[in-house]
Every structure is written in C-alpha cells, then in structure tokens.
Amino acid sequence: MDDVFKALADPTRRRLLDELFRMDGQTLSSLEKRLPMTRFGVMKHLRVLEHAGLVVTRRRGREKLHYLNAVPIRQIHDRWMDKFREHQVSALIDLKNTLEERDTETKKWNRRKTA
After folding, report:
1. Which of 14, 26, 45, 48 is 20 to 30 Å from 88 at the Cα level?
2. Considering the chain, what percentage of its residues have pLDDT values greater than 70?
3. What ranges make up the beta strands (E) of the chain?
4. What is the pLDDT of residues 18-33, one digit of tens each?
5. SS3 of 68, please?
C-alpha cells in the first residue's frame, strides 16, 4: 500500500491516471502529448504507477498500451474509509432518531395547546 500512496502523492501521476480514466488503453506517445514534459519524464512516472499496480500494460504489435487499474485505489478506500464510515452512519442514525423524537414531542405539545 505504501507504493500506491507514493504514486498518488505526485500531481503528475494523478494527472496520468486521470488521462487513462478519460480514455483507457493509451500509448506513451498519446499520453506524452497531454502532459507538459518529455517522453522520458512520462515513462518515469508510468513506471512508478506500474510498480504500484495502478497501471497495467498490454502489447499490441509494436505499441505498448497503458490501462488504469483502479483496484489498488479501491482497496485503499475500503481499508481507510469503511472503518470511519461506520461512525458517521451511526452518528447520522442517532441524529435522525433525535430529530424524530423532537418532532413527535412538538406535535404532542401543539395538540395539547390547541385542545
């Protein structure tokens, strides 16, 4: 997981992932055109993303196509967000119950007042 966090920490690598999300299966040349950097710079960032498992490649003839692999991002989400989400959901349920109880009490008070 450290490799994924390291890869996601860089804005250029996040932009590469955004480009692959927008259009998956791009060549190095097509990615290079979308970024203000050299071919070598794009290759360097792609290697980090591949090492983290965020990008997978496939050969098609002489071309090497790059694909986004969102599984590591989902694993981070599940590991880090799920444990915090339980507390948030419980707090929302408690808030809902409190507001419904107040609404019920208000309605009872209004009935007594008009009777």
Report:
1. 14
2. 98
3. 55-60, 63-68
4. 999 999 999 999 999 9
5. strand
